[in-house]
Specification:
InterPro entries: Inosine/uridine_hydrolase_dom, IUNH, Ribo_hydro-like. This protein is α/β, with parallel strands linked by helices. It has 14 helices and eleven strands. It binds beta-D-ribofuranose and calcium ion.
Amino acid sequence: KKKVIIDTDPGIGSPLTEPLFDGADDAMAIFVALRSPEMEVLGLTTTFGNVHTALATRNALHLHRKLRIASFVHGSDGLGNQDFPPPATKPVDQSAAAFLVEQANLYPGQVTVVALGPLTNLALAVKFDPSFPKKIGQIIILGGAYSVNGNVNPAAEANIFGDPDAADIVFTCGADILAVGLNITHQVVLTDADREKLEQCDSKYARYLCKIMGIYFDYHKDAYFIKGVYLHDPTTLIAAVNPSPLTYTEGVVRVQTVGLTKGLTVFDNTKKRYGEITAWTGMPTVKVAVTVDASAVVELMMQR
Ligand code: BDR
Ligand code: CA
């Protein structure tokens, strides 16, 4: 079984960024993971992004009560506007970065981190232990927009925009990284018809998703004029279950950390075209997803 840690920002609404996103897609990704016999979820670590960390932690606890949870922040009563009761469990008293480093040391080369929010926790893990990039198995990131516009503004995708400095540290740390960006996830849509199928499904996971997905669907209708929702985080998680729906190319990713284009991901794969000559020669390369079999992803998501 693949050992997986999900670094996530599940929640509804965002006090930090406009326009508002919600974490329904984080919830979907977590559920796909819990329903996938191919993987063993070592833990959920939470980060801010869709909501601040305390609420993300609370919501992650809500999504699965038996998991080990590592988080910076503890206790979060009264922070959400959801009508769920407080979770029955508490977060583990350990920072996310410490948990990531601990697990990488415990299972060198075997842990996959699926990063579904801003990359703060991973950057801290890199700073905390410079050997972390070599000890972690793979990092699969929902982050960036490669040759397409962002979703916070024309330059930046939300997770990268959330902490561009952290993103630049992670992309250049030398770990085995696969980045899934908006060029991919804007092709993967859970439609209104899929939603109806989920509504008829006799599953506690489907029922939970249907309950929290409303705002996410409304948002997509208003912002993107589509009848459905983008499956950012589930697509990324599914890459850890079964990478075959994706193809990728390799190159250097750097992140703009200041100014008008703060959060822009610049992908340099000129090496492919010009041999070894690239402006950023010597920087560690990462894999960036370039094509997706969208229906295979949606099918797997629905099935799980
Ligand atoms: C990313 O931002 C959040 O809204 C989603 O959960 C996803 O991780 C998409 O840009
Ligand atoms: Ca997310």
